[in-house]
Amino acid sequence: MSRPSLAPPPRIAVILPCFNEALAIAHTVQSFRQALPTATVYVYDNASTDETARVAREAGALVRAEPRRGKGNVLRRAFADVDADIYVVADGDGTYDASAAEGMTRLLQDECLDMVVGTRVHTENEAYRAGHVAGNWLFNQVVASLFDKGLSDIFSGYRVMSRRFIKSFPCASEGFEIEAEMSIHALQLRMPVREVPTRYAKRMEGSHSKLNTWRDGLRILVHILRLQRLLRPRQFFGALGAVLVVVALLLSIPVFLQFFETGQVLRFPTAILCTGLVLLGALSGLVGLVLEGVSQLSLETKRLSYLAEPAVALPEAEDARESVTTGGTARPVLP
Fold it and tell me: What confidence tier does 212 reach under pLDDT thresholds 50, 70, 90?
């Protein structure tokens, strides 16, 4: 005779980074508590100057503080401090649909995924400005071209992630580039990822976005290129070396034409510059090859850290662990 599985339910943590979100945080906390009744909701106050911490605490959240400004700094601290099996990350401004969290966490468990991304679907222009839509599309193309594949919304702040994703994620970002880094981490390790369309609403009246389109867009682009240099050094330095060689060839055309006409090299500075550029190009390619080995070692280390954590248990796996005890000896239940 079979008996119900005694395996405990997964521990779910909802992490909400906040900076001056006193107007929206109570509604956001209550919405996630209603959607995920067994989850623990953490609000990380990022040096707010309003009543965000007090309002969140009164709404039933566990409030913690991170004095260093920036969403990346907040999530780095949260991922290190919070111990759970499933992590739900969203913003504290009420723009993400909390009711989708239950379905996203179930999908993570049912398909044994490491990340479920809530792609933003908006019906109001105020929710998702045209400049942000265009920038998001552009950066999606950049990441897809640099890392051979991509996601349709790499900047979505609504994600459900497994413990092994979180505990293998180095988190080097300080600001809004954290979402791009999480996406690239999943792509690099070839983790199982799914995207789910979720409603994206406009901010509450009186609440203002902390994202600066041009400043943060430039920071994100620089960070993506930095990750490409670190994770794909052969590509990065190979491309740099190729550019240097091409520039040297273009500059050397007048030198060769003059040599064929006169039999002499009269433009010594240009000839020396071209020689130096070719040498730098070759050296850049060699550096890329050397660093490729270092990058591969780093990838293997992250992969081992990833594999050291157990996957989210499948419901079928839990059912398979049910057993019948006879004379003190447990034997598996056969179908």
Answer: low
| Six-digit token string for 105 | 């966490």
For residue 132, name the pLDDT band (cuts at 50, 70, 90).
low
Spatial contact of 166 and 86, defined as CB atoms under 8 Å apart = no
Of residues 248 and 315, more confidence is placed in 248
Residues 57, 144 within the same domain = yes
171 and 77 both lie in a single domain: yes
pLDDT at 321: 46
Give mean pLDDT, residues 280-301.
89
Same domain as 226, residue 271: no
**What distance in Å separates the CA atoms of residue 192 and residue 197, rounded to the nearest whole number?**
17
pLDDT band at 320 (very low <50, low <70, confident <90, very high): very low
Q: What is the DSSP letter of 100?
A: G
- 163 and 79 in contact (C-beta within 8 Å)? no
User: Which of 60, 18, 64 is CA-nearest to residue 39?
Assistant: 60
Cα separation, 53 vs 286, in Å, equals 52
Kindly state the helix (H) or strand (E) to which residue 243 belongs, with its residue range: helix 233-262
pTM: 0.76
With respect to residue 333, please indicate whether it lies within any of the assigned structural domains: no
Helix (H/G/I), strand (E/B), else coil: 193: strand
DSSP 11: P
C-alpha–C-alpha distance, residues 118 and 38, integer Å: 21
Contact predicate 185/169, CB 8 Å: yes
Domain assignment of residue 116, given as a range: 12-231
Q: Are 112 and 314 in contact (CB under 8 A)?
A: yes
Boundary-marking domain end, from 231, 246, 279: 231
